[in-house]
Design brief:
Belongs to the bacterial solute-binding protein 1 family. The protein has about 450 residues and is α/β, with parallel strands linked by helices. It has 2 domains: about 210 residues, Periplasmic binding protein-like II (D-Maltodextrin-Binding Protein, domain 2, 3-Layer(aba) Sandwich), CATH 3.40.190; about 220 residues, D-Maltodextrin-Binding Protein, domain 2 (3-Layer(aba) Sandwich), CATH 3.40.190.10. It is about 40% helix and about 15% strand. A hairpin with a 6-residue loop joins strand 9 and strand 10. The longest helix has 16 residues. It is globular and about 70 Å long. The two termini are about 30 Å apart.
Length: about 450
C-alpha cells in the first residue's frame, strides 16, 4: 500500500510552486470559511461528521467539507492535489507518508501555532506527539488516534481444540521451536479429514483450517505480520530510530525470525503466500473459517465485529526471547497542506480535532483509540459495550513495551526494495539469508539520498 516515490518525484519540481500557488485549492467560489478535509477510513467518517457539527457550533464562522476515499485512491489523489494545487486544506496523515511530504514542502509546520495558542501536548498518549516531529525538528501534525496489534481468534475453534483463554494469553515463542505459540497454532490447524496438526496422519497438503492466517510478506514494516516476533527477538529496524538512517534487515536476529515464521507454511500451519494473496482478505478468510487466529491492528475491531457468525475474541501477543510482549505503536494525525489559503480555519479544525472535546466523540464511537489519554476510559467502556475486552491492545502501552513505526523520508524507496524481497522469501523463491543483499540495497538508497 505504498505510493511509488518515482511517480511522486516525477512531479516534485512543481510541488513547491503548487504549494505557493494553491489558492482556493483549485475550487472556485468556495464558501467563506469552509475547510476541506480528507480521510480514508469509511468506518471513521460518521464520527468525524459529528466532530464537524460540534466544530461548527463552536466556530460558526467556519465549516468543514469532508471527503472519504479508499486507501490507494486517497494517497494518489493527495499527491495529484499537491502537484496541481488542489489538495485539501487538512488531511489525515500517516507516519509512513508525512516525512516525504514534509521534505517536499507540502506540509505546514504548526510549532508557532501551538505556542501561540498554548496547546498542552502532554494530554496525548506518551510518545504520540513526538511522532510528528520531522527530521528537521519541526512539527507537522496533531495526534488523532493510536493503535497496537493483538491476535483475533475464533473462540469456538479454540474451545473445540481444548485451548483455554489463559493458554492463549500466556503464549511464548522463540525462533528454535516456536514455543507454546507454535504448539497452539499446530493444535488449531485442521486438515480436510479433521485431523489436527498435532495428531498422527495430519496432511499438510490438504488443510481445511489454518491455525494462523496472514495477508502478505509484511513489506518493510511487518506491522501486522512479523514485527513483534522480530522485536522480541532483540531486533530493531534501524539506527537513528524512528528516523532510519541505516537499516538492519540483514541482521541475524531478523533473518532467523523470518526463517521460523515462514517455517509455519512448510509445516502446514499457515497458508502459502499465494493463498494469502489470492484476493480473499485475511478478515474474510477468518470469517469463513479458514483461519483460527489472525494478527491485526486495533483499527480493525469494527471489521471483525461485523463478521457476524464468528465469535471473535482477543489474545495477547506472545512473550519472546527477551522476556517481553511487544507491539508496534503507531497513530494517525491531522496535517495542514502548506498551500492552503485558509490557514486560520484549517488550524482551528486541526486543533479542535486534537482536543478532548472532539476526541470524546471519537472515543464513544468505538472505532479507534483516541490520542487524548483522558478519553481512553470512555473508549474502553464503548468497546466493552460492543463485546470487546481490549486489554491485549492496551497492555503493551501500559508496560512501555512498544516500538515505533519505522519512519523516514525515503520510506517509499525502502518499500520498493523490501516488499518484493519479503514476498520472495515468503514464497520460498529466495532464502532469509538473501535479505542481507536487500538490506544493502536499502542502505545504498539511504546513503545516496543523504549525500
Amino acid at each position: 500500500m505504498s505510493i511509488s516515490r518515482r511517480s511522486f518525484l516525477a512531479g516534485a519540481a512543481g510541488l513547491a510552486a503548487a504549494a505557493v500557488a494553491g489558492c482556493n485549492n483549485g475550487v472556485a467560489n468556495r464558501p467563506a470559511g469552509e475547510v476541506s478535509y480528507w480521510l480514508w477510513d469509511a468506518a471513521q467518517l460518521p464520527m468525524y461528521l459529528e466532530c464537524a457539527k460540534a466544530f461548527r457550533q463552536k466556530f460558526p464562522q467556519y465549516s468543514v467539507k469532508i471527503e472519504q476515499f479508499g486507501w490507494n485512491d486517497y494517497w494518489s489523489n493527495l499527491v495529484t492535489g499537491f502537484i496541481s494545487g488542489t489538495a485539501p486544506d487538512v488531511f489525515t496523515s500517516h507516519s509512513a507518508r508525512y516525512p516525504l511530504f514534509a521534505s517536499k514542502d507540502q506540509l505546514l509546520a504548526i510549532d508557532e501555532l501551538i505556542d501561540r495558542d498554548g496547546l498542552d501536548l502532554d494530554i496525548y498518549q506518551d510518545g504520540l506527539a513526538e511522532r510528528w516531529i520531522g527530521d528537521d525538528g519541526r512539527r507537522y501534525g496533531l495526534p488523532k488516534d493510536w493503535d497496537t496489534e493483538a491476535y483475533f481468534y475464533n473462540s469456538a475453534m479454540t474451545a473445540d481444540a481444548g485451548i483455554s483463554a489463559e493458554q492463549l494469553n500466556s503464549m511464548t515463542w522463540n525462533p528454535k521451536d516456536g514455543g507454546t505459540f507454535e504448539q497452539i497454532v499446530r493444535r488449531l490447524t485442521v486438515d480436510s479429514k479433521g485431523r489436527r496438526g498435532d495428531q498422527p496422519g495430519f496432511d499438510k497438503n490438504y488443510v481445511k483450517t489454518y491455525g494462523l492466517g496472514f495477508s502478505d510478506g509484511g513489506d518493510s514494516d511487518g506491522q501486522t505480520s512479523w514485527s513483534w516476533y522480530a522485536a522480541t527477538n532483540g531486533w530493531t529496524y534501524s539506527e537513528g530510530k524512528p528516523w532510519g538512517t541505516k537499516f538492519f534487515y540483514g541482521d541475524a536476529k531478523f533473518t532467523e525470525t523470518i526463517a521460523w515464521y515462514r517455517s509455519l507454511i512448510t509445516k502446514g500451519y499457515m497458508p502459502t503466500l499465494a493463498q494469502a494473496k489470492s484476493g480473499v482478505g485475511i478478515t474474510e478468510a477468518f470469517g469463513a473459517g479458514k483461519y483460527a487466529i489472525t494478527p491485526n491492528g486495533s483499527w480493525m475491531l469494527g471489521v471483525y465485529a461485523g463478521l457476524g457468525k464468528v465469535k471473535t475474541k482477543l489474545a495477547r501477543l506472545p512473550e519472546g526471547p527477551n522476556g517481553k510482549r511487544m507491539s508496534m505503536m503507531n497513530g494517525l494525525a491531522d496535517s495542514i497542506w502548506a498551500g492552503t489559503d485558509r490557514k486560520d480555519a484549517a488550524w482551528a479544525w486541526v486543533s479542535f480535532l486534537g482536543s478532548k472535546e472532539a476526541q470524546d466523540i471519537v472515543a464513544k464511537a468505538a472505532v479507534v483509540f483516541p490520542a487524548v489519554k483522558a478519553c481512553m476510559p470512555a473508549a474502553q467502556q464503548a468497546f466493552t459495550a460492543d463485546g470487546w475486552d481490549i486489554t491485549p491492545f492496551l497492555e503493551p502501552v501500559q508496560a512501555g513495551a512498544t516500538f515505533a513505526y519505522p519512519a523516514n523520508p525515503n520510506a517509499a524507496d525502502v518499500s520498493s526494495v523490501m516488499k518484493p524481497a519479503m514476498d520472495s522469501v515468503m514464497a520460498f523463491e529466495t532464502d532469509p539469508a538473501d535479505l542481507v543483499e536487500a538490506n544493502n540495497n536499502v542502505n545504498r538508497i539511504l546513503a545516496a539520498a543523504s549525500s
